[in-house]
């Protein structure tokens, strides 16, 4: 069983946040608003062509898939792929930002904060899990299994 903090973070908060993002893209407020808020607070409405709409809907599908993977993979306690995905998400979000905004957190919108700050929190939790903080490591647990006492004749 996972310790409470890891269980809360990985089995509930993260999957729910990815499902909510998918719902925001697919239904309300919709792909157009999600598209406009990806990077910065832009003034004026940005129009989307049919290709951009399709890309946003596919992104929503990716969030749904991610939610399923998070739920099923973490329950199986095999999540090295999620550490790689977290690092990749942080890196590409930074690359997508104008360099002048990398350290200007006040100009970031909720999407950028989510893709960087929230993912850093998730990555920290995964790295803490790998480091054995707050739980007994599985490999260590296997080594400490008591051997059968040998009978003395």
UniProtKB/TrEMBL annotation:
<keyword id="KW-1133">Transmembrane helix</keyword>
<protein>
    <recommendedName>
        <fullName>DUF7704 domain-containing protein</fullName>
    </recommendedName>
</protein>
<dbReference type="InterPro" id="IPR056121">
    <property type="entry name" value="DUF7704"/>
</dbReference>
<feature type="domain" description="DUF7704">
    <location>
        <begin position="2"/>
        <end position="133"/>
    </location>
</feature>
<dbReference type="Pfam" id="PF24803">
    <property type="entry name" value="DUF7704"/>
</dbReference>
<keyword id="KW-0472">Membrane</keyword>
<feature type="transmembrane region" description="Helical">
    <location>
        <begin position="115"/>
        <end position="133"/>
    </location>
</feature>
<feature type="transmembrane region" description="Helical">
    <location>
        <begin position="54"/>
        <end position="74"/>
    </location>
</feature>
<keyword id="KW-0812">Transmembrane</keyword>
<feature type="transmembrane region" description="Helical">
    <location>
        <begin position="12"/>
        <end position="34"/>
    </location>
</feature>
<feature type="transmembrane region" description="Helical">
    <location>
        <begin position="79"/>
        <end position="95"/>
    </location>
</feature>
């Amino acid at each position: 069983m996972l310790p409470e903090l890891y269980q809360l973070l990985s089995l509930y908060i993260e999957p729910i946040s990815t499902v909510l993002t998918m719902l925001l893209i697919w239904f309300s407020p919709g792909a157009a608003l999600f598209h406009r808020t990806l990077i910065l607070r832009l003034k004026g409405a940005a129009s989307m062509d049919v290709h951009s709409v399709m890309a946003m809907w596919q992104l929503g599908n990716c969030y749904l898939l991610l939610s399923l993977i998070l739920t099923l993979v973490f329950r199986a306690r095999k999540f090295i792929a999620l550490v790689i995905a977290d690092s990749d998400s942080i890196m590409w979000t930074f690359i997508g930002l104008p360099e002048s905004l990398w350290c200007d957190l006040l100009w970031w919108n909720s999407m950028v904060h989510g893709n960087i700050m929230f993912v850093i929190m998730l990555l920290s939790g995964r790295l803490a899990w790998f480091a054995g903080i707050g739980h007994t490591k599985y490999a260590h647990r296997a080594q400490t299994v008591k051997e059968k006492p040998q009978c003395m004749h």
